[in-house]
Amino acid sequence: MGKKKSKKSRKTPEELAAEEENNKRYHEIGLEVMSLASTRWCTLHLKCTINVHLFFTVHVPVNETRLANIYDRIASRHGNSISDLTMYKDQVYESNVVAPLTATMAELGFQGTPEGDPSTYPEYDILYDFKPRQTKCPLLLSNPYNAYDYGAVFDAEDKSNSTSKKLGRSGSGKM
Fold first, then answer.
1. Could you give the 3-state DSSP secondary structure of residue 121?
2. What pLDDT sits at residue 7?
């Protein structure tokens, strides 16, 4: 039994370069597919334009989170007592309005990084403005600053005490 001589096919340098280029391209495509398959996250800083103290942060997956989910988070943060919520990306300009509610964060241009340490997630500001919900409830419509008008209460007590003294009654109730 003799050894068979194998013929090695000799490739030209152009063919070798083309093969290397294809391998690089397929490797890059493989990496891109793997990165797309993993969940990508971002950090959203939700800021109210009316009051600077109404500020909170959420970490969300960009491909799975819809703008409606962010809308619900903001509304629940305000006790679901708001309406006509308008959200803006980065600054309050008509051109920066974020819509429609059915769009995912990725569809709206938000980028993310693979799940991991939240400090590595890209950060975005979403500013929001709203109107209070319209209601006919008298308790909610009352002015909270006049609800406890202590001056009127104390003046009424002073008047009743002075009337009692004029009539000869004592305030202690003893006779």
1. coil
2. 56
Q: Return d(Cα 69, Cα 132) in angstroms, integer.
A: 20
Mean pLDDT, the chain, integer: 78
Q: What is the C-alpha separation between 87 and 97, in angstroms, rounded?
A: 6
* Residue 86: burial class (beta carbons within 10 Å; 0-12, 13-18, 19+): middle
Q: How would you class 20 by CB atoms within 10 Å of its CB: exposed for 0-12, middle for 13-18, buried for 19 or more?
A: exposed
Report yes or no on whether pTM surpasses 0.70. no
- Tell me the per-residue pLDDT of 77-90, one tens digit each, with 9 for 90 and over: 888 878 888 999 98
CA dihedral 17, 22, 23, 24 (to 10 degrees): 90
CA dihedral 149, 153, 155, 160 (to 10 degrees): 160
Question: In sequence order, which residues have a C-beta less than 8 Å from that of residue 120 and are 6 or more positions away?
Answer: 113
